Amino acid sequence: MTTQKTINNLYHEFNTYNVKRILKMKNIPVLYYPLGDVTLGYTATIKRIKTITVDNSLNEIQTDFILGHELSHVLNNDIGTPYYRRVGSFSAISKKEKQANNLSLGLLACRYELDKYSRDIQIKQLGLNDFLD
Would you call 43 helix, strand, or coil by DSSP? Predict the structure, then answer.
């Protein structure tokens, strides 16, 4: 399924682009903890319940970006991509990670009505330069 189709389906089902509301309505627990300078968030399955943990030092937009990224992994039942890290390796970003980034950025762009702008402008206006290229 394409990223835009997933975003449209989420909006149709939940009537919002707000990732925190979507997670709440999907009954996906979110925990906020200090995770350090590198790891910003991850999804873990605890007693068969997918739970998202996000660094509690991020601003609202950064937090929503990480939550949207992790939501994508939950929706796609991704495994093997446990942590969103501020500092990536020099290797190429996997398809799963690109999809997760695109879904998250797409949700934020729609929520803040930036969907008519290019990806680069969206990233700049949201202040996510350190998160995305």
Answer: strand
